[in-house]
Amino acid sequence: MPSSRAFEDMWRDLAPVGRSASSGGYFRQPWASAETELRAWFAEACASRGLTVETDGIGNQVAWWEPSTPSDVPGVLTGSHLDSVLDGGAYDGPLGVVSALAAVDVLRDRGFEPSRPLGLGVFVEEEGSRFGRACLGSRLVTGATTWDEARELRDRDGVFLADAVADAGLDPSAGLLSVDRVGTFVELHVEQGRDLVDREVAVGLASEIWPHGRWRFDFAGQANHAGTTRMEDRRDPMLTCAMTVLAANKQARLAGQRATFGRLAVEPNGTNAVPSRVTAWLDARASSDDGLATMVAEISRQADDRAGRDGTSLVVTPESVSGSVGFDPDLAARLARLGDWPVVPTQAGHDAGILSDAGIPTAMLFVRNPTGVSHSPDEHAETADCLAGVDALADVLAELAGAPA
């Protein structure tokens, strides 16, 4: 097992950045001060290991450990992201970045020399917490999303993504990272669930990512006085929204899937006023593409029916939808033999899914999360399990980057 000092030193460096004094959670939104500080930290951590970081025009970063004998064989990339959800946990994303750096330390301590390039990478705006498009950095570099489309996205304050990127001192015209050099991608991540806890193992491999997405539900009605308007005279979009939230919960439970309304915007947002508009965002996930489409369609149908009874209207807009991702089974089987790790599915989206969709052989390692809680200040992983993850990642990278070119 690797020395804990380097890992714990890096973790201690990251701990205060973007942390809320009141909740203990993290606010590391892309192209804002905390995330900019973290990108600078990553560049310094790579420089201390003799690696030079390349930063592209939107903030994606990569540093390559080159083989002593130059090779034009596609390399192995590992890493994750440094941004967080609003009031998020410490481990989602940064664990994969810190573990990548620590794994390089382990490999060098072992005397390992790569026979093909080994890269450490960080993708921006993985969570989609600011501009509503999950895995935006990896979507842009793989071509799944174009810059012309992305630049028009706005955050909650109405700031265009193009302006946020420029305000962070970045220039998209400088270009994006190329994935042409990436032959395999491996992402280590804290598990966002309890599968490894139930199996009583510290490390696992991913088999697949469930299809998932975000849909915006715009409910419109008529603003009116909360006191003088009789209940039977109201056209209240909040009632339609409330019924839709309950319908989503029921449909997900019946199908054994996931549906969550976690964000809401109300206009005019007054205590003594019937709302004129309610906008709600649905996060839905299912074990199959057909299952996801069926569930969202049924939730939308019930919402539309209720709108007709309430005298309101509804428009449903898909904002970010990702199909099912099955990770390379041969690669997963090959890597599972290194540590006899279980191969498990995940319901969470990751940059690994975007690179896999782009045709890059991809694998994920998970580190046990003792409570299964994620996207919360309570997210956690024990140091011993994190170090086991570093060792596992080092073994995987040695297997992939040490293979004859």
From TrEMBL:
This is Allantoate amidohydrolase. Pfam families: Peptidase_M20. Signal peptide: none annotated. The keyword Hydrolase applies. SUPFAM superfamilies: Bacterial exopeptidase dimerisation domain, Zn-dependent exopeptidases. Belongs to the peptidase M20 family. The keyword Repeat does not apply. Keywords: Hydrolase.
